[in-house]
Every structure is written in C-alpha cells, then in structure tokens.
Amino acid sequence: MPSERKTIRQLKDEYIRINTEILHKPIVNEESGDIAELHKAGFKKMISDKAIQKSIDNGFTKAEHIVAAIHIEMLFRKGKKAATLLDEKMQMDM
C-alpha cells in the first residue's frame, strides 16, 4: 500500500477492484495444496460491518482488517495450516 493514508472507502474500493478479479477462480495453498474459491457471498461478508467488528474486537483496526482482505489471495496461497475446524453449519472451514 502506498505511504499516503487511504480512507476506509478507498480501501473498500481497492478490495472490490482487486478481488473481483479472483471471484470463482481456484486459489491453491502452496504448502498443503488445499484449494479455495472466493464466491460472491464470502466476497461481501469479508468487508461487512460484522466481520470488521470481529477484527476490531480482536484488537485490529478497520483499515488493518480491510488491508488483510485486500491481500486474501496471497494470504491463502502463503498461509500455513494450523488447524481444520468445523464451522457453525458443520462444514469444513479454514
């Protein structure tokens, strides 16, 4: 991210611009070979007020949350699997 400070709206616009390109395309984790796809529902949830609030509750800022979302493809590709858990719907979730 350039050194100038961006507004939350600018960060959200950047998130949309960058991650629209990866919608419905497989993303492969380099270590495990796990494959993920970003779908429209997850795309919207990632920068929802509820998701941002969860990050704030965990000590992050709005901007930090959105910057992480901007880089979700790289984070998944380079991530190290710590655990595999069932989500609320009893489906595998990473």
Question: Care to describe what's here?
Answer:
This protein has helices at 8-20, 40-46, 49-57, 62-70, 72-78; strands at 26-28, 35-37, 85-86, 92-93. The protein has 94 residues and is mainly alpha-helical. The strands form two sheets. The chain has a two-stranded antiparallel ribbon. Strands 3-4 form a two-stranded antiparallel ribbon. Helices cover 48% and strands 11% of the residues. It is globular, with a radius of gyration of 14 Å.
Task: Tell me the helix content.
Answer: 40-55%
H/E element string? HEEHHHHEE
**For the residues shown, what is the average pLDDT?**
90
Strand content: 5-15%
Biggest beta-sheet profile: 2 strands, antiparallel
Number of separate helices: 5
Low-confidence stretches: none
Count every beta strand, where a strand is a DSSP E run of 2 or more residues: 4
Which features characterize this protein?
94 residues, 5 helices, two-stranded antiparallel sheet, mainly alpha, single chain
How does the SSE layout of this entry go?
Layout: H1 8-20, E1 26-28, E2 35-37, H2 40-46, H3 49-57, H4 62-70, H5 72-78, E3 85-86, E4 92-93
Helix pairs in contact: 1-4
Short description:
This protein has 94 residues and is mainly alpha-helical. Helices cover 48% and strands 11% of the residues.
